[in-house]
Amino acid sequence: MILFREIRFRYEKETHDIYKLYDIETVKNSRDNTPDSLIESVFFSTKHQKPRYMIVRKIMNAYVIGNLHSPVFMCVVK
Q1: Which of 32, 39, 41, 59 has its CA 20 to 30 A from that of 72?
Q2: Exposure b/e, 16-53, CB count within 10 A at least 16 = b
Q3: What is the rounded CA–CA span in Å between residue 63 and residue 56?
Q4: Angle at alpha carbon of residue 56, lines to 54 and 58, rounded to 5°
Q5: pTM of model > 0.90
Q6: Domain ranges of the chain
Q7: How many Å apart are CA 20 and CA 53, to the nearest integer?
């Protein structure tokens, strides 16, 4: 399975770690063969009618990224 998508959006900073995302557009590369239903159930919805909220928190040498309810993934700075 290949996941190859670009997500374009505009954002507003709501608080020091909460961002409101809007005008969200998902561009699916022709090589992407991952079912949308899998992405929606595991990662995030590909249907973007309403604004979405995202939390970005720095913890030591990492950034925890998630929704308002729970973390979704972590990026570690080496």
Answers
A1: 32
A2: eeebebeebebeeeeebeeeeeebeeeebeeebeeebe
A3: 6
A4: 170
A5: no
A6: 5-76
A7: 5
